[in-house]
Amino acid sequence: xxxxxxxxxxxxxxxxxxxxxxxxxxxxxxxxxxxxxxxxxxxxxxxxxxxxxxxxxxxxxxxxxxxxxxxxxxxxxxxxxxxxxxxxxxxxxxxxxxxxxxxxxxxxxxxxxxxxxxxxxxxxxxxxxxxxxxxxxxxxxxxxxxxxxxxxxxxxxxxxxxxxxxxxxxxxxxxxxxxxxxxxxxxxxxxxxxxxxxxxxxxxxxxxxxxxxxxxxxxxxxxxxxxxxxxxxxxxxxxxxxxxxxxxxxxxxxxxxxxxxxxxxxxxxxxxxx
Length: 274
Description:
Elements: H1 5-11, H2 18-30, E1 36-38, H3 39-47, H4 53-65, E2 69-74, E3 77-82, H5 87-98, E4 106-111, H6 117-122, E5 126-129, E6 132-137, E7 147-151, H7 167-181, H8 191-209, H9 226-251, E8 253-254, E9 257-258, H10 264-273
C-alpha cells in the first residue's frame, strides 16, 4: 500500500493467496455485518495488498464453485454473500479467533479405522500409530464409526506433544510475532491503513491458529510461542479496530448501501478481548 510504511513492512515477504485473503475479509468484516459485499469494494481492498482485479475475480469464481460464496446481481452490480453451506465453517473459525479459549476437559483417544491422516490433520488430531488418534477433549463428537475413550486429566499426561508435528506451527507463530511485533508500538497514518493492517493481522494469525491443536499447557514445550502470539493478536486487534471500522463504514458497500461501521456481532467480538 503506497505511502504507508507499516503496511509495507508487514507485506515484506508475506505470500498472500487471493481466495484465502477474501475468506479473511468476509470472516472479519462482512459476515458480522450481514454477509453481503459489492465486488467493487472487494477489488479495492484486495488491491491494497497487491492482489489485482483479475486475481480477485478468478478467486471469487473458485469460491463460488466450492460453495463458499454465492453471487447475486442488482442492476449492473455484482454482490457476493457467504453461502449457507459454508456458514458452519466460518462460525467455527470465528469461535477460535474471536471467542474466549475453551479449556480442554481431558483427552479423546480414538480408534478410527476409517479416518485417514489427511482428515486427522484437518481435525488437528495427533497420530499415535495404526488407527489410534488423540486430541484434546473439548466436547467434539467423534468421527463416524470411531470408538472414543476419554482420559480425564488434561494436565496429567506430559509428553503427548510428540504425537503432533509442532515444528511448522512454532515457525508460523515465530513469523507472526516477528512480523507484527515490529509494528506493535506504532500507529498507521490513515483509517484505510488501519483496516488493511487488521486484515493482514487476522489473515496471518488465522493461517497458523486454525492448524493448532491447542494442547494443554502441560503438553506443550516450555518455549511455546502460541500464547505470546495470541496476546499480540488481541492487543493489536483492539488498537487497530476504531480506525479500521471507521473505514468500513465509509467504503464497504453491501446490497443495501454502506455497511455499518459496527454491528452487535462485531462489538461482541471486541468484548472477548477486553
